[in-house]
């Protein structure tokens, strides 16, 4: 077993200001924990970032020196993570002089990422259960669909489902 904490994240939205869903799974020491949620009047960048913020909150109570890898299919998340220190130093303004979009969420990401070792990795995800990123993408899709019927929600991913997380026995 490894002491690396891996956070698999995904967010999705039907269209501009539509129904959105997000999900994450944390694997650490051979166990998985995950949560999914949905929001109305959402946009994709906020759903992607909400998944990351919620996943990073799962680090509370873990060793501060433990290596953390955030896996995301979002180019926005990967590029933004690489810009956090510069944005913060510039007063949350981009290199083009524009205010950082979704600053409230980026500040939450920065509070964790700038305080402990966190690496961001871009992955490819298609909703399926055959790979970790696909498993999480399927749950974010499910969350978006549930939100359409039931409204905004946050719910743990059931343990029997997490037991099927791809590669868990290798975590």
Folded structure, characterized:
The protein has 5 helices and 6 strands. The protein has a 6-stranded mixed sheet with strand order 5-4-1-2-3-6. The radius of gyration is 16 Å and the shape is globular.
Most strands sheet: 6 strands, mixed
Radius of gyration: 16 Å
The side-by-side strand order for the widest beta sheet comes to 5-4-1-2-3-6
Order of helices and strands: EEEHEHHEHEH
Low-confidence stretches: none
Briefly note the structural class of the backbone: alpha/beta
Determine the N-to-C terminus distance.
Answer: 6 Å
Instruction: Report the helical percentage.
Output: 25-40%
Tell me, rounded to a whole number, the average pLDDT. 92
Strand share of the residues?
Answer: 25-35%
Count the beta strands: 6
Please, how many helices? 5
Shape: globular
Write the layout of secondary structure elements.
Blueprint: E1 5-13, E2 18-28, E3 31-42, H1 44-57, E4 68-72, H2 75-89, H3 103-113, E5 118-122, H4 132-150, E6 153-156, H5 159-162
Parallel strand pairs: 1-4, 4-5
Antiparallel strand pairs: 1-2, 2-3, 3-6
Helix pairs in contact: 1-3, 2-3
Structural descriptors:
171 residues, alpha/beta, 37% helix, 27% strand
Outline:
37% of the residues lie in helices and 27% in strands.
């Amino acid at each position: 077993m490894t002491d690396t904490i891996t956070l698999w994240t995904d967010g999705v939205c039907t269209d501009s200001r539509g129904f959105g869903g997000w999900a994450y799974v944390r694997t650490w020491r051979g166990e998985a924990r995950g949560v999914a949620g949905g929001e109305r009047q959402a946009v994709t960048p906020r759903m992607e970032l909400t998944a990351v913020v919620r996943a990073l909150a799962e680090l509370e109570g873990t060793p501060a020196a433990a290596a953390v890898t955030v896996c995301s299919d979002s180019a926005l998340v990967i590029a933004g993570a690489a810009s956090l220190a510069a944005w913060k130093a510039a007063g949350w303004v981009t290199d083009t002089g524009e205010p950082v979009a979704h600053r409230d969420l980026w500040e939450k990401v920065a509070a964790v990422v700038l305080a402990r070792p966190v690496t961001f990795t871009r992955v490819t995800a298609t909703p399926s259960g055959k790979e970790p990123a696909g498993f999480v993408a399927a749950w974010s899709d499910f969350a978006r669909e549930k939100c359409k019927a039931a409204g905004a929600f946050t719910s743990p991913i059931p343990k029997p489902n997490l037991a099927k997380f791809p590669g868990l026995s290798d975590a």
